[in-house]
Structures are given as structure tokens and as C-alpha cells.
Amino acid sequence: MSRAAWHARIECGGAVSGAGFLVAPRTVLTCAHVVQEREWAPLTVSFPNRRDLGEVTATVAVHGGWAGGWTDPGDLAVLELDREVPLRPARFAPPGAEQSGAPLQAYGFPEGYGEGAQAFYRAVSRTLIADEWLQLEATSTHGHPLAGGFSGAALALPDDRVVGMVVQASDEAGVRIGRMLPTEVMARYWYDLGALVPAPEADTPAATGRLHSLVRRAEEAGVDCRPDQLYRDSAGPFAPDPPAGGFASLRAAAAYVQWQVDDPEAVERFADRLRALLEPRPPAVARTAGWAPIVVELERSGEGQEQVTVRVSAYREGQRQERLPRGDVRAYVQQRVDDAFGHLAQDAEALLTFVLPREWLNEPVAHWECGPEDSTPLGCAHPLVVTDRSRHRSARLRHQLAGKWRTLERSPGRTVLLRVDCGSTEHPLGLRKRLRDEDAALAGFGAPPTAAPEHFEASVNMPVPVLLWPRTGCASTDHAGPCQGSAFLDALSPYVAGVPPTELPRRIWHLREEAAAVDPEGHWARDVQLLWDDPRCYPEPPASLHTPVA
Fold first, then answer.
1. Cβ(444)–Cβ(418) under 8 Å?
2. How far apart are CA 417 and CA 441, in angstroms?
3. CA 68 to CA 422: how far, in whole Å?
4. Which of 129, 262, 371, 398 has its CB 3.0 to 4.6 Å from that of 133, i.e. a possible disulfide?
5. Among candidate residues 519, 496, 517, 516, the one with its CA nearest the CA of residue 508
6. Where are the beta strands (DSSP E) in 391-431?
7. Which uninterrupted H or E stretch holds 268?
8. How wide is the angle at C-alpha 420 spanned by C-alphas 415 and 423, nearest 5°?
9. Which residue intervals of 42-164 are DSSP H helices?
10. Does residue 324 register a pLDDT over 60?
């Protein structure tokens, strides 16, 4: 008995029209043009190496969309047999295995050979023709050419593993070329094939089976998975770019990860992220998972007071840098921030972080509009924080801050606002000592940094994770009694008391929304500014290219 009894002969209209191959007990693959007369002619399948099974009636279950021309894509048909056949289906090799140099065997049914004949060809290049076909050339000038009757035949390695299907052959005398659909292209038109084909470079049936099971679940549930973003999130920074125009479906993105991405872990990452969309975590758990920052860094370029260097970076990848006049910065940042969202994980919670020179920390970045067509302030649309550029790049402070955050996580709920009241006469060194003695995690100012620069500098240069202040300050000159700055701190203290510092960006985001909705001009928190700095959320700064050792 042949070990490859899965080779099939297709008859449509009472005559042999082509070949096919069994991939499941009731499923046969062939070319769409082989069964193009199915609407008015009987369609039967037989297996020449198991004549005892007789002819089996079949119907077309899936059509690849082939439009009828020889250069039209989608020349694939999936046939469903009216009964199972007791044969072992074909096995598949990983995509790219056809490039091994070994001859590829095709079992077809040219005219005069009703029992079948064999032809041997090689794939001459890994380059797809029109993103669809691989070219085939005969291994010798003898033997059968790929003439009519070979269409739909499997192309198999010497160990009988299938690498593709014959779709075009030359009928010209003496011409021994043809075209094949490799398995990764076939799967574009029949997604279930992906679960049968191992990933490139590795036989991972469990991983691919899990992936395709999750894709089917997502389709049945109607989950909006945003395939382009899911691909970028899973494939990694060195993977091929998505096709022009993006992925037409979740299936297309999954197939691209499986066969076009060299990273063997990409399939698992894609499946993990898809599962997270299908099985979202409870809100209480999701909130402890951390932030996905989009970092906007601004600094003077050194080419003039009004020239600013801007860099917008998604947490996961991609950095862009450009020098701009200061007046152009806002529009540039709006566009780049919007682009950066495309690099975040599907289930990530974005945190807009503006890394600013110390003299710009009071900039109203939370009031910048989201874009030219969306006037919503950035600080009302997303959690938004600022941090000091020199502190953000200080290895010493990053180390100290990381330790402080770990300590805070071990004792959540003990956050108390350390007040620096408006018009304070406290010596800056006294404030520094108070911050250390009280192991402060959260300090609040009754006035902006420009009103008490030495106090503010003392706080920024200490590993205090969170600082808050009103951007517009206090109009009073006598701070002996109640004033606007004191009222700000009085209202802020109970609002943040006991809130875990990791939650403060979200808490202040909601506060900004409330202020904008209730009283955008008179609410006590209308101009609240939040400096929040958890080094664990941000990439490490680049190492210096200069050695201090002479």
C-alpha cells in the first residue's frame, strides 16, 4: 500500500480535470480552475492508490476567489467529501522547505494517464511572483512536464511532506516551467490550513494550534482586535512591516506572524495578547499591571532660544527626533503622540509623560489640545504627568527612586501629602531634611515652581516620587491667613490621602476631567500639575559614549 495514498484525482463533468490531495478525512485541496464547471457538472474525487474506495462525491466548501484569469490570485478550492475516507492525510513541511534543493514530486493526471503520472521540479527562488506564486523548473529534460492534469497536485519533498500546490503549467512543447502556490499563500484563502502547517524553522503544532483556536474564538465573539496593532505588539521591532494597507483580517495577521516572522516566540506572544483580549483581567488586577508610557522629551537644541529638540517615544519601540521652532512643537507633538499609540500593546494603559527642562516644568501641557480636530485637553483625554529632564537622566536619582517605589509597594495606602505652603519661610535645607525624615512619597506645593524655586529645587533633587502644585499660583501677597495656595492644598490632601502612588496619574486624570466639566475657570484643581516619576516604567537612559578614565 502506498504511503502517500492521499493523492487524489478530480473529475468534474465526467472527465479528469485535475489533481488534489487529502488534508483531513473529508477534505481535499485542489485548484479553483480545476472545479470551475462544478455548477453544472458532477464533482467526484478518487484515490488512484486506493481504488477500492471508489469515487466520492464532493462539493466546494471554500473558494479562494479566483476570478477566471490565469494571472488572477486565489486559485484554490477546498472540497468537502460526502463521506470520510480511511486514509492518512498529507503532512506538511514548514514554509521555505521547498528551498532545500531537493526535487519536488507532483502526482498528476495528464491526458492518457488516468492512473496518474509523476513529474519532478524544483522551486528556483524564494521570491514570490506578484506576491502569489513561486516559479518551478524541471529537474531534467526527461520525464513528464507539468502539463494539463497536474493542476491541483501537491508538491512534496522526498519524505512526502507537502510544500505547496501546482497551479500553472506550460502546455508548450519543450517548455518545462510552472508555478506553485506555497502553503503560506494557500492559507490566505483557507485559514484552517494554518493549523496544519508547522511554523518556519520549528515544528510547533501546540503553539500554532492554540493560535488558530484563539483566532476562531475571537471571530465567533466578534472581538475588535485591531490586527495591525496586534501584529506590531507581537512581532517585535525587527519583524517585517505589515503589508501595504494593513491586514484585512485577524486571520491574515495571525498567518503573517506564523510564516513571515523569524522570531519563534512571536506566535506565542500573538496568542497571549489575543487571549488577553478574549479574557480581560478584572479591573482591580488590571490596575496593578503598570503603565505603558508615551514619552515626550523637550529640550533646547543649542541653536537658539526658540529652537527645541523634540523626541516622542512609545514605551515599546521607536524613537523620533527633530529640531523645531518652539511655536511648532505643539502641533508636532500632537501628531507624534497619536502615532505612538499604534506601538502600544492592545491592553496597555497609556501614560503621557512630558520630560521637560526644569524651567519648563510649569508649561500647560495638560491643556494642549489632542489635535486640530479634537479640542479635548490632553490631560482630560489621558493620564498625563511631567518630570524633570535632569532628574529623569540621573542614574543616582533613578536608583534611589526605584528603591522608594519598591518600598511604597510593600506598604500601600500610607501615602500622606507633605505640604509646602504658599509663602513658606522654611529654609530649603530644612525642607530637604523634612522630606528625608518623613520619607516623603508625595509633596504638595501651594504655589508654582517660579514662586519658590529653592524649595522646589530641594524637592526635585530628592527621591520624592510625586510632586503636585497649582500651575497659576496664588494672587495673595499676605499668606498669614487663608489664601488660594492654602485652599489648593486643603482640597488636595484628602483627595490623594491613602491613594497608592501608582494610581495617582489616573486619580489626577479624573480630577482634571471633573474640573473641566464642573467649573473650568474656578475649580480648585483647574491647573493642577503632576510630577510623577517611576523609573521602572521608562527605558534606561543611553550609556555615555565618553569614558571618564583618561
1. yes
2. 8
3. 80
4. 129
5. 496
6. 418-420
7. helix 266-278
8. 165
9. none
10. no
Q: Determine contact, residues 356/389, Cβ cutoff 8 Å.
A: yes
| Cβ(313)–Cβ(340) below 8 Å | yes
Residue 229 CB partners (closer than 8 Å, separation 6+): 342, 344, 346
Give the pairing of strands 528-532 and 466-470: antiparallel
CA distance 469 to 279: 39
Rounded to whole angstroms, how far apart are CA atoms 295 and 340?
A: 9
Q: Residue 495 gets which letter from DSSP?
A: H
CA distance linking residue 130 with residue 132, whole number of Å? 5
- Per the document, the length of the chain is 550
Q: What is the spatial distance between Cα 69 and Cα 168, in angstroms, rounded to a whole number?
A: 11
24 close to 81: Cβ distance less than 8 angstroms: no
Query: Which residue is it, cell 480511511?
Result: 86
Angle formed by the axes of helices 205-221 and 250-260, nearest 10°: 170
Residue with cell 500573538: 270
Q: Which position has the grid cell 525587527?
A: 238
Whether the CB-CB separation of 512 and 523 falls below 8 Å is answered with no
**Measured distance between the N- and C-terminal CA atoms of the chain, rounded to whole angstroms:** 79
CA dist 104 and 212 (Å) reads 28
Cell 528603591 sits on residue: 403
Using alpha carbons, select from 389, 377, 408 the residue that is nearest to residue 500: 408
User: pTM of the entire structure?
Assistant: 0.52
For residue 547, pLDDT beyond 60: no
Which grid cell sits at 35?
Answer: 472545479
Nearest to 319 by CA among 210, 237, 440, 408: 237
Bridge partners of 20, per DSSP, are: 8
412 pLDDT band, cuts 50/70/90, is low
Could you identify the residue written with the cell 484525482? Answer: 9
Which residues neighbour 402 within 8 Å (Cβ) at sequence distance 6 or greater?
Answer: 534, 535, 536
Determine phi and psi for 46, rounding to 5 degrees: -135, 165
Secondary structure (H, E, C), 181-207: EEHHHHHHHCHHHHHCCCCCCCCCHHH
Amino acid sitting at position 497:
A
- Return d(Cα 150, Cα 19) in angstroms, integer: 6
- Of residues 439 and 223, the one with the higher pLDDT is 439
Beta carbons of 133 and 168 less than 8 angstroms apart? yes
Nearest to 256 by CA among 276, 236, 281, 272: 236
Residue 15 sits at φ, ψ, to 5 deg, of -135, 155
DSSP string, 301-369: -SS-TTEEEEEEEESSS-EEEEEEEGGGHHHHHHHHHHHHGGGS-TT--EEEEEEE-GGGTT--GGGSE
Using alpha carbons, select from 104, 109, 134 the residue that is nearest to residue 122. Answer: 104
pLDDT band at 45 (very low <50, low <70, confident <90, very high): very high
Q: How far apart, in whole angstroms, are the C-alpha atoms of residue 382 and residue 351? A: 7
> Is 274's pLDDT higher than 50?
yes
For residue 354, the model assigns a pLDDT of 94
